[in-house]
Amino acid sequence: MGTNSIKTNLTKDSIISDIKLLLAADINKENVYVVVEGEDDIKFLRRYLNSNVTIYESFSGKKGVEEIVQSKIICSSRVIGIRDKDYCNAPKGEKIFFLTDVA
Predict the structure, then answer these.
(1) pTM of the entire structure?
(2) How many domains does the chain have?
(3) Is residue 81 part of a domain?
């Protein structure tokens, strides 16, 4: 029997849609949306971020962070991806990525 958890059933499209709706509703452009790889990242970052920052856990680790932040549907510098470097180069493009675990 499968799990009936909203969190486990989130998809790329549902996260992108949620962010898009929140961006449109924020007429003062005060809020920022951060996409991270996992639950540990949320626990770590939550204590350092302001209340106007909403953190989303990627649907699929680092690949999911890249796909969400680089989505053509979300065209905003207020959507930021934070992921581990994992010996990969940062994606090229207009979107903002912060890499952690940099030696």
Answers:
(1) 0.80
(2) 1
(3) yes
CA-based radius of gyration for the chain = 14
The residues with which 66 forms a beta bridge, in sequence order, are none
Statement: residue 99 has pLDDT above 80 = no
Residue identified by tokens 């996409």 is: 35
Measuring CA to CA, which residue among 57, 19, 22, 18 is closest to residue 36?
57
Residue 60 to residue 57: CA distance in whole angstroms: 9
CB atoms within 10 A of CB 42: 15
**Enclosing domain of residue 12:** 7-100
Read off the tokens for 96: 């903002």
The owner of tokens 């010996």 is 87
In this prediction, residues 71-96 reach a mean pLDDT of 75
User: Does 2 map to a domain?
Assistant: no
Strand order through the sheet with 96-100: 53-57, 32-36, 79-84, 96-100
